[in-house]
Structures are given as structure tokens and as C-alpha cells.
Please model this.
Amino acid sequence: MRTWKNGILLPFLLVLLWYIISKLQIFSSYLLPSPAATAITAGELIRSGMLWQHLLISLQRVAGGFLCSVVVAFPLGILCGRSNSFQSWNSCVMCRLWLQYR
Model:
């Protein structure tokens, strides 16, 4: 039976693993800061109001990347659906991409 405890177990284990890896210094603290350092920095960003600015910039980057992919993929999809010669010419590339990212 599912309880609220099951929903907390995985995040707790992931943070514990994060803590252990940061304590063992497998990666530098620049690449993988400790959970405490991350929480302190997040608190400072929230207090200063900079968190929302950083989040907005990150969301703009995600939206820009999505828009670029749609601009490329949508016409290619239409061409593949409308033209058998284009589809056969492009099928090896599409199959390779499909196998790589499935």
C-alpha cells in the first residue's frame, strides 16, 4: 500500500547520496557542492531577489531551444510526410537519430 512515506524515501535517498558523494570529494565542490552549501546559496538568492531573475533567464534559454527544435523539426516532418523521395533520402538519418535517442 502506498503512503506518504514512500514519496519521501526516494528524494531522501538521493539527497543522502548527494551528501555522501560531496563529503567524499569525488568531484570538486565547484562541480558538486554539498546540499548545505546549495541550500545556503538558494536562501541568499531568494533573499536578494536574484533567484527569479536567474530562473527567468534559464526558462528563456529552454524556450529558445524548444523553439529552435520546432523550427527545424516541423518542416522536416512535413517534408517527410509529403514527399516519398525526401523521406527515403532522409530515412537513414532519421533512423539513426531514433535509435540513438529512444
